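Hello,

Our lab assistant flagged a job as stuck in the queue for most of the afternoon. It eventually completed. Since we weren't sure the result was trustworthy after the delay, we are filing this so someone can double-check. Below is the sequence as submitted and the structure that was eventually returned. Let us know if re-running is recommended.
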Amino acid sequence: MRLARTGRSAAAALSALAALLTPATAHAASAPAPTLQQHAPGDTVTVPVRDALAALTVQDESRTGYERTKFKHWTDADRDSCNTRAEVLLAEAITAPEIGAGCTLTGGLWYSAYDDQYFDAARKLDVDHLVPLAEAWDSGASAWTAKERELYANDLDDARALIAVSAASNRSKADQDPSTWLPPYAGHWCQYVTDWVADKTRYRLTIDPAEQTALAQRLAVCPDQPITVTLAR
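-- returned structure --
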């Protein structure tokens, strides 16, 4: 079951702070830092978001062969009757819903960061893949195995990967990247592009030139905050 987003955010912040305060950091300052490419899957890295963006591979994307069904979701990995969508809704609920048979959710309260609105029913929300499935395919997932794509589509280990938002905002986004779509609520833009870079870093996905330009322009006016990412690939 996924931990609550707030808990993960706090843990990530503490991890980043600890990394900045560790005495060994000063001792190693004269040695070149390892690039992200030198890290292995499972490694946890902390890096300023603008540096993480600069480390992403920039190349043109291709949607050839894409079908949404090539990303199996929503699954119930822990077999507790609550699939990935329900797990996200339970983790992000401000007021917990009642859980009925088959993990039917009744009541509850959620905040949609994309449009700065509150919702009182799970049916009014979509669970968004921050980096959409089609975008992931374009950016490298076309070469993954079916199991790797399934794990991506149901990623409960990084709270940035999946987010409960209003159905309207998610459907207006569809499969767009930040060069053509940002959340309607401008107050979430910096968090959105920072999380986007973190998610692409986690899966070593590429970015296309227009996407790179849009991310760089947006991050130039956002805090260059450290992101902590456990590499999935």
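-- support follow-up --
The delay was a queue issue, not a problem with the job. The result is valid. DSSP finds nine helices and eight strands in the chain. Strands lie at 44-48, 98-99, 105-106, 110-112, 117-119, 125-129, 162-166, 226-230.
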